[in-house]
């Protein structure tokens, strides 16, 4: 493994400007579409239930299909991201996600939907796992935490977009099919944009591809100078103290070695609690899929996505009334 401390020092002394924020935007938009995909299925499930005459168990299979794919995709992204590069994994993950999302619009049954959701999860999980490392490797040490945490903003925006589509598009005739297309097609634009992004110079250095890393940093320096109105860049420090690049390992046990067990445990537990609270919290008792409601009745299609319950045929601005007469919010 070869490295050049001068290249890393040139990257670290760059001021944050439009080129780096463009990389953040290109990466963050992928998180937006991932959040959109995760949340929008909650709005679509009641309509899929009626469309294909599904049982509650089959609805549960659809809801749990994407997370299965995400687990596999996230693990694969880490392995292939170290071997093939960050950019390649991001592009293939996004392409997989886009194709699976759009394909749901043409679903003709339960098996089709489940397979499409698993494939979409593969792409979404890989996307989520690789974007943050890619973005962090373009940020400087003093700005890296703030820069990477900005990605979470896009995840929140994805929730908002999902709520809007779920309220105003999904209830239309074949609205869930239209929504699937709306969730997938814009990803093609993002895919085209990401093709122009450079590979991570830090990853290139870890692979001994010093000349390519130098070319990436040189181009980035030119763009930063142009973005800052021609202002000269800070000088490169004469004495550079860059820690040695860590050994790249493909073993899943690496995160439990060399003093990382405590960090890994804390990270896994906090992530589990957050995601369980976010996705697994029970909904309103009046607006879940009530087993005592007759199959196919409008009330059996009511859903609660932390917003409101309504029948599949009522306008998006009108809330439904629960079985006890209480209004469900």
How would you characterize this protein structure?
This protein has 329 residues and is mainly alpha-helical. It folds into 2 domains: 5-231, Up-down Bundle (Growth Hormone, Chain: A); 283-329, no CATH class. The protein has 11 helices and no strands. It has helices at residues 5-12, 18-51, 56-84, 86-103, 110-136, 144-149, 151-168, 175-194, 201-206, 210-227, 261-279. Helix 2 runs antiparallel to helix 8 and helix 4 packs antiparallel against helix 8. It is globular, with a radius of gyration of 23 Å. 34% of the residues are buried. Residues 282-329 have low confidence and may be disordered.
Kindly state the mean pLDDT as a whole number?
82
Structural class: mainly alpha
Note the total helix count. 11
**Which architecture of the largest domain does the CATH hierarchy give at level 2?**
Up-down Bundle
Tally of distinct domains: 2
Helix content estimate: 55-70%
Shape: globular
Which spans of ≥5 residues are poorly predicted at pLDDT below 50?
A: 282-329
List the helices and strands and how they pair.
Blueprint (H helix, E strand, L loop, with lengths): L4 H8 L5 H34 L4 H29 L1 H18 L6 H27 L7 H6 L1 H18 L6 H20 L6 H6 L3 H18 L33 H19 L50
Helix pairs in contact: 2-3, 2-5, 2-7, 2-8, 3-4, 3-5, 4-5, 4-8
Brief descriptors of the model:
mainly alpha, Growth Hormone, Chain: A, globular
């Amino acid at each position: 493994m070869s490295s050049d401390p001068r290249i890393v020092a040139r990257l670290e002394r760059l001021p944050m400007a439009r080129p780096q924020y463009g990389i953040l935007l290109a990466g963050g938009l992928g998180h937006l579409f991932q959040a959109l995909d995760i949340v929008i299925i909650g709005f679509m499930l009641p309509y899929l239930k009626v469309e294909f005459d599904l049982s509650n168990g089959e609805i549960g299979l659809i809801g749990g299909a994407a997370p299965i794919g995400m687990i596999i995709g996230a693990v694969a992204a880490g392995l292939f991201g170290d071997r093939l590069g960050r950019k390649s994994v991001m592009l293939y993950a996004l392409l997989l996600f886009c194709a699976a999302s759009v394909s749901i619009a043409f679903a003709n049954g339960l098996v089709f939907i489940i397979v499409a959701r698993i494939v979409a999860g593969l792409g979404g999980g890989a996307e989520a796992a690789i974007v943050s490392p890619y973005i962090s490797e373009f940020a400087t040490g003093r700005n890296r935490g703030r820069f990477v945490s900005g990605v979470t903003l896009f995840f929140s925006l994805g929730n908002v977009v999902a709520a809007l589509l779920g309220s105003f598009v999904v209830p239309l005739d074949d609205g869930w099919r239209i929504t699937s297309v709306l969730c997938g097609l814009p990803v093609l634009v993002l895919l085209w944009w990401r093709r122009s992004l450079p590979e991570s110079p830090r990853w290139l250095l870890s692979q001994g591809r010093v000349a390519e890393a130098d070319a990436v940093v040189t181009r980035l320096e030119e763009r930063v100078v142009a973005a800052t109105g021609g202002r000269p860049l800070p000088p490169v420090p004469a004495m550079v103290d860059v820690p040695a690049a860590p050994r790249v390992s493909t073993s899943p046990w690496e995160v439990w070695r060399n003093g990382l067990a405590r960090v890994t445990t804390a990270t896994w537990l906090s992530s589990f609690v957050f995601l369980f609270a976010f996705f697994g919290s029970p909904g309103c008792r009046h607006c879940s899929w009530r087993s005592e409601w007759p199959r196919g009745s409008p009330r059996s299609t009511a859903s609660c996505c932390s917003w409101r319950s309504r029948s599949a045929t009522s306008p998006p601005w009108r809330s439904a009334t629960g079985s006890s007469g209480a209004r469900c919010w």
